[in-house]
Amino acid sequence: MYRNEPYGSNAYYYAAPVRQSYPISVSPYAYTPAISSDMRFEHFYPPYAQPAWSHHANAPWVHGNLEDTREKQQPLTFVLIHGAWADASFWNGTAAELRRKGHTVYAPEYPGHGSDPNKNVTHAMLTKSIADFIVTNHLKNVVLVGHSFGGSLVQTVAQQIPDRIKRMVFFDAFVLKDGQSVADELPPSTLEAFNQLRKSSKDDTIMLPFPLFRETFVNLASLELAQQIHNAISPEPAGPLYEKLDLKKFYSLSTPRSYLFLTEDNALPQGSDLYGWFPHMANRLGLFRLIKGQGDHMTTAKTEPRMLAQKIYEAGRD
């Protein structure tokens, strides 16, 4: 293997041997390499002893920064699905950045969230709402992105209208096994807390107490920002979190899929074989593209929308 290194504002290639290890995704179907955005695909042009770019006068990086070649993005159609304790405004900054790059972006609201006061909803109602939105708006070749709880909706929507979905992107999101509920993937202490919060509510909802929210959902935020985000959330309908889902059709789909993992996301335990986003749930996808970035569960969409938009694009492009 050989390393590419910057040279001024350009990039060049030289034949210095380096050790390189790539992450491996272990799926229930096969042992396959996860394709990661932070992999460096490295090149060598024998028998040149000098930088290879000097032999390629028309190469784009000879005339400017290599980053310039990445500005023009493949135009895509994104449908962004938010998670629990959020509404469609979660995507505002990210959607604006994606649109600025020339993409078509939709962030539909679903029942029991946003301005809808009715919390008596089911997972099937949420699925139908999003699937109907895609069909009614005649959307095709959709990159369907789900965050957190929204991952379970990516699964159910994709199996309802697979012909309209170009790629599925799970962003720190649940990837449930057939017959599971989201609640089944919570560690025992969290599940017990949710059960108690659900039992104490008058409308079958769960409201996250600030100490739990602050340490797990917005761990990178300042105290002031953490309080601001918490004050904006609404109680989450409990029913869809506990529903067991029939996902047999999802696991028969050949639709390409990606997993976007932010490395400081503490909403689920890290480093556990039994719980967590990556690799625990991501590996259920079989062959998938892995994209990593820095961020937590809910702060990053507010504070780093440009970075998040770029990562979502990397997850969604061909």
From TrEMBL:
**SUPFAM superfamilies per UniProt:** alpha/beta-Hydrolases (SSF53474)
Provide the AB hydrolase-1 domain boundaries.
Answer: 78-230
Family annotation (InterPro entries): AB_hydrolase_1, AB_hydrolase_fold, Sec-Metab_Biosynth_Hydrolase
What Pfam families does its record include?
Abhydrolase_6
PANTHER family per UniProt: AB HYDROLASE-1 DOMAIN-CONTAINING PROTEIN-RELATED (PTHR37017), ESTERASE_LIPASE_THIOESTERASE DOMAIN-CONTAINING PROTEIN (PTHR37017:SF11)
Name of this chain's protein:
Salicylate esterase
What species is given as this protein's source? Paenibacillus baekrokdamisoli
